[in-house]
């Protein structure tokens, strides 16, 4: 994490370290005797807050000392669940309540607000989960509250000194709202505008997730994006005039593109439209450029930058990574496989003409709430998996990677297609061996071995 003066970085590795970019010197600031994570600088840069074990800890740069304070449970170990108030006097922290023996009592999270001297000013105690604290101003906090079944999410503004709440917007989904992880942290949290007067919400319309503008003063909600596509990862420009986001469906649901939306007019334009995946949108401080990661069907992940004014973009790093995998790369094809009940399931097919009479491998990704895109992924772990696919193809195999029902990116019908059916199968008779006669057709639209496995999976 960058230091406020841009002259150094904080990193966590068996303690919190300060790295001086001018001299290259690294100084260990904390002992690392307990698990530490999520350092976040105060607005004035005089101290940073971080998670230390089960507590909230503050490091003072003037005295080079750490002081830690307990909350009514175990501090959540993942960002962005530690949030400074704009005046730098208080921190909102997500935590997990514990029982009398000090053991985590349930899955969900709560949020507490404590001052830099450790005094707790306000805290939730909910049967569901409360997460994603964001300060609207020095006294008002924006939180998201889920019920126990994760079928309802309330976006609530809290006046911390009095505890008074104002409900801004409620999302209801009988089949369950998508969760960010096992703690129920909402990946579709409101994204505050730079002036903290508005927020971007991702909300489904006619089965597709789109951006909406929520006015924090009037509670009015205005839809910003449309179409049979999924929008994600909105980021405000520094002046609040534009919102950049990722969107698929242009032209393929298996690719993510960068789009820039003008807030007032609603006009949206593609900034970077290339097959593959994008990630980590970041505006330059002057608001003229956007940096992002891009990985394509034949391109490893690299850092790109786009100019918003003329919609141009270029790759910065890397040009190409060493190794045979990049030289012999086989790009996947988007295919649709018919399941035993007639449902068309999207997948990615890795094959070469000379391997069409050889064994095939069906690969089911993790999740289920995730999507695999056309080509190299943008994260390291999935890149290792993609490289393994390339080695399998070079060894003579055909690989089918399924975005099975429950995956995101293909609309709510697909995302909810395994509702109350995860792990179920239609019958034991359907689970039969796949004989060598199963071959995929030359047009790549049907694979016999995949049909047999889908009968097994139901």
Q: Which class best fits the helix and strand makeup?
A: mainly beta
**What is the straight-line distance between the termini?**
46 Å
Total strand segments = 32
Strand content: 35-45%
Give the biggest beta sheet: 5 strands, antiparallel
Global Rg: 24 Å
Given as residue ranges, the uncertain stretches (5+ residues, pLDDT < 50) are: 427-458
| Helical proportion, percent range | under 10%
Oligomer: single chain
Mean pLDDT: 83
Shape: globular
Number of helices: 4
What does this molecule look like?
With about 450 residues, this protein is mainly beta. Among the domains are: about 70 residues; about 130 residues, no CATH class. About 5% of the residues lie in helices and about 40% in strands. The chain has 4 helices and 32 strands. The strands form 8 sheets. Strands 8, 9, 10, 11 and 12 form a 5-stranded antiparallel sheet that branches. It has a 4-stranded antiparallel sheet with strand order 4-5-6-7, with no helix packed on it. A hairpin with a 3-residue loop joins β1 and β2. The C terminus is likely disordered.
Topology (elements, then pairings):
Blueprint: E1 8-12, E2 16-20, E3 26-28, E4 36-41, E5 47-52, E6 55-60, E7 65-69, E8 73-75, E9 82-84, E10 90-97, E11 110-115, E12 120-123, E13 129-135, E14 140-146, E15 152-159, E16 164-172, E17 191-192, E18 198-205, E19 208-215, E20 221-223, E21 231-236, E22 242-248, E23 256-262, E24 268-272, E25 277-283, E26 289-296, E27 299-307, E28 312-317, H1 324-327, E29 333-338, E30 344-350, E31 360-364, H2 380-394, E32 398-402, H3 412-415, H4 448-457
Parallel strand pairs: 31-32
Antiparallel strand pairs: 1-2, 2-3, 4-5, 5-6, 6-7, 8-10, 9-10, 10-11, 11-12, 13-14, 14-15, 15-16, 17-18, 18-19, 19-20, 21-22, 22-23, 23-24, 25-26, 26-27, 27-28, 29-30, 30-32
């Amino acid at each position: 994490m960058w230091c406020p003066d841009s002259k150094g970085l904080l990193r966590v590795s068996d303690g919190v370290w300060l790295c001086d970019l001018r001299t290259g010197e690294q100084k260990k600031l904390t002992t690392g005797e307990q698990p530490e994570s999520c350092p976040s600088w105060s607005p004035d840069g005089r101290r940073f807050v971080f998670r230390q074990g089960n507590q909230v800890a503050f490091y003072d740069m003037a005295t080079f000392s750490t002081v830690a304070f307990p909350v009514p449970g175990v501090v959540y170990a993942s960002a962005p669940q530690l949030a400074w108030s704009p005046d730098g006097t208080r921190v909102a922290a997500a935590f997990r309540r514990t029982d009398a023996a000090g053991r985590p009592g349930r899955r969900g999270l709560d949020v507490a607000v404590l001052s830099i001297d450790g005094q707790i000013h306000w805290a939730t105690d909910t049967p569901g989960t409360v997460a994603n604290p964001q300060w609207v101003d020095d006294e008002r906090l924006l939180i998201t509250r889920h019920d126990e079944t994760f079928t309802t999410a309330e976006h609530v503004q809290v006046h911390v000194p009095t505890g008074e709440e104002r409900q801004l917007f409620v999302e209801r989904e009988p089949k369950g709202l998508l969760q960010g992880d096992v703690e129920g942290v909402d990946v579709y949290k409101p994204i505050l505008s730079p002036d903290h007067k508005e927020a971007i919400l991702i909300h489904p319309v006619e089965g597709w997730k789109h951006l909406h503008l929520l006015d924090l003063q009037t509670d009015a909600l205005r839809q910003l994006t449309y179409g049979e596509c999924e929008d994600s990862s909105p980021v405000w420009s520094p002046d609040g005039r534009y919102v950049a986001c990722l969107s698929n469906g242009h032209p393929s649901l298996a690719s993510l593109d960068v789009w820039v939306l003008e807030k007032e007019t609603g006009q949206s334009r593609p900034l970077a439209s290339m097959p593959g995946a994008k990630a980590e949108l970041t505006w330059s401080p002057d608001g003229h450029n956007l940096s992002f990661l891009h990985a394509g069907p034949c391109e490893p992940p690299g850092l790109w930058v786009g100019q918003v004014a003329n919609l141009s973009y270029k790759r910065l790093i890397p040009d190409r990574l060493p190794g045979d995998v990049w030289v012999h790369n086989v790009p996947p094809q988007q295919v649709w496989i018919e399941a035993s009940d007639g449902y068309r399931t999207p997948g990615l097919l890795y094959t070469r003409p000379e391997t069409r009479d050889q064994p095939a491998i069906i690969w089911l990704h993790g999740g289920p709430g995730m999507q695999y895109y056309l080509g190299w992924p943008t994260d390291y772990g999935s890149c290792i998996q993609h490289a393994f696919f390339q080695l399998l193809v070079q060894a003579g195999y055909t690989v089918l990677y399924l975005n099975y029902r429950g995956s995101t990116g293909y609309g709510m019908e697909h995302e909810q297609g395994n509702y109350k059916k995860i792990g179920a199968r239609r019958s034991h008779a359907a689970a039969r061996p796949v004989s060598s006669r199963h071959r995929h057709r030359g047009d790549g639209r049907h694979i016999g071995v995949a049909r047999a496995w889908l009968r097994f999976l139901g």
